[in-house]
Amino acid sequence: MAEMDTSSGGGHKKGPGVKKGKKLSTRVDLTPMVDLGFLLITFFIFTTTMSQATAMKLILPKDADKPEDQNKAKQSGVITILLGKDNNVFYYEGELTPNASNFQSSNFHDIREVLIKKKNSVSDIKDFVVILKPSDECTYKNVVDILDEMTINVCTRYALVDITDIESQLVAKSEAMAAAAPAN
Amino acid sequence: MGRAKLPRKSTSIDMTAMCDVAFLLLSFFILTTKFKPSEAIAVTIPKSVAAKVAPTKDIVQVIIDKDGKVFLEMDDEEVKETMANTLNTTKNMGLDVKAFKKAPFFGAPFGNLKSFLALPEDQRKGNLLPGIPVKDTANNELTEWMTLVRDAYQGKKPNLLLKGDNLAKFPAFKSVITAFKKNDFLKFQMVTSPEGVPVGTELWKKSQAGEKREE
Question: Does B174 touch chain A (CB under 8 A)?
């Protein structure tokens, strides 16, 4: 049905004095056009990103003016995570010792293990509190990543807290040490 | 011997109908695709496992670009009109209310706002604009902006969104949070692009068990 009539070309006879026009079929083979149509469909489907932006909720605590109003967390269940520059992560459990012996370094991949271990070691899950302290050097992505880590590991109690001077110095010092270490 | 003669059928099929279907589908897909609006401020958003779709109506969106410049984007024109009038009466800035109303986003210190609004819209590009000054903690202009927004919404809660670039440094983020906190905006949402939950984690187990996630 849909084919070009090519036979008519060879079939016409030249009558004396009569010039017959070539009779061409008007039917065109549409197969290539169908191919093209589906090719375009596939192209558009694959290049369209279906993803819509999602939103991550963050609820800020109201600033407590008086120190006695602040929430107290049990020392044994607290883990503090510090974010440094170049995706460095540091953490310590409980309170920071004066000689910073419990200050440990980590990265975004290993911090999950640390969190899970800490979470499982805490006797009462209500005491498990994560304190996040981003330093001035870390990026917005780092903060979102670590907040995401809270969601992934179902840590329900966490707080975003300003970094103290001592801690930022420690972060800077350990980063400098880490940078110097491969050179030796 | 009479042999039954099978009628010889052509193997070619009429492709017209199929072609119609193909192009119908093509036009359907093209017309239903919502194009991403070209953004004046280029921001690469981070990924997260959050699954809730970001709201698109009644938004007040604070954008932090990769240099830490802050912009404010709003969609409600009535609210913007109220804000412009408030600014004109309290600060006597003589702003063009109409231009303010139509502006999709704001990214200039209060002092330069008039010249910012005088710029044609296609020239308001994030990388050329100064942004709302937030770095100086004593003079965080975003705080004033948020106060304006809060007053203009008159108790209604707008959808407060924060859209930050991957490379934006934390101090910019912190000053935005401070501006939010000072105006009692304690709930906000961060715009991220979706990502699968890592296999084997607690959240993954929960979703496997069919538990609904609290947002």
Answer: yes
CA-nearest residue to B189 within chain A is: A57
pLDDT in tens, A19-39: 667 777 777 888 888 899 899
CA distance A153 to chain B (A): 5
Report residue A84 as tokens: 């440094």
User: What span, in angstroms and rounded, lies between the C-alpha atoms of B129 and A101?
Assistant: 47
Q: Cβ separation of A53 and B165 shorter than 8 Å?
A: no
Rg for chain B, CA atoms, rounded = 26
Indicate the residue type of A78.
V
Asked if B191 lies within 8 A of A135 by C-beta distance, the reply is no
What is the chain A residue with the closest CA to B165?
A: A140
For B123, half-sphere exposure in the C-beta direction (CA atoms, 13 angstrom radius) is 6
Q: Residue B76 gets which letter from DSSP? A: -
Residues of B in contact with A1 (CB under 8 A): 10, 12-14
* Least-confidence region, from A53-67, A101-115, B97-111, B146-160: A53-67
Its ipTM equals: 0.73
Do residues B141 and B109 make contact, with C-beta atoms less than 8 angstroms apart? yes
Check whether A4 has a pLDDT greater than 70. no
Is the minimum CB–CB distance between B154 and chain A shorter than 8 Å? no
pLDDT at A11: 47
CA–CA distance, A38 with B188 (Å, rounded to integer):
44
Helix H, strand E, coil C: the string for chain A is CCCCCCHHHHHCCCECCECCCCCCCCCCCCHHHHHHHHHHHHHHHHHCCCCCCEEEEEECCCCCCCHHHCCCCCHHHEEEEEECCCCEEEEEECCCCCCCCCCEEEECCCHHHHHHHHHHHCCCHHHCEEEEEECCCCEHHHHHHHHHHHHHCCCCCEEECCCCHHHHHHHHHHHHHHHHHHHC
For the stretch A132-158, pLDDT in tens is 888 888 888 888 888 888 888 888 888
> How do residues A6-20 score in pLDDT, each as one tens digit?
544 444 455 566 666
- DSSP 8-state code for residue B53: B
Question: Which B residues in the span 48-107 are in contact with A, Cβ-Cβ below 8 Å?
Answer: 48-55, 64
Q: Which helix (H) or strand (E) holds B72?
A: strand B70-74
